[in-house]
Amino acid sequence: MFDTEPLLRKFQKELSAGTVSLALLAVLGAAAQPMYGYQIAKRLERSGEGVLAGKQSALYPVLRNLEAAGLLASHVEPSDAGPPRRYYRITDAGRVVLREWAAAWRATRDSVDSVLEELIP
């Protein structure tokens, strides 16, 4: 029997790579206050029904890239329990990009859904 599991994992990894930035911007765009990495990971886990859940450490390079692009800003605060925490917030530029990326995502999703519904009943 053909094992499809490795292909599914590869496909999910490719999808995730393209959507995590959008999901991170969405989480921070909806947040009333800046959030640190663990909070963001837990929010993704709850909101994304586990689909975007993964290793928390994998979020940090994406957060750094978004910050380097000017879409997020961060600051470090001491923590009562453990090491200092880096808090992230979305910037005005990040809000503009979030709206554009969300529109692009919806258009792509709708197009793929249309093809799938027509060809795979």
Automatic annotation (TrEMBL):
Matching SUPFAM superfamilies: Winged helix' DNA-binding domain (SSF46785)
Pfam family membership, one: PadR
Source species, domain of life: Bacteria
Domain Transcription regulator PadR N-terminal: from-to ranges: 24-100
Gene3D superfamilies reported for this sequence: Winged helix-like DNA-binding domain superfamily/Winged helix DNA-binding domain
Protein name: PadR family transcriptional regulator
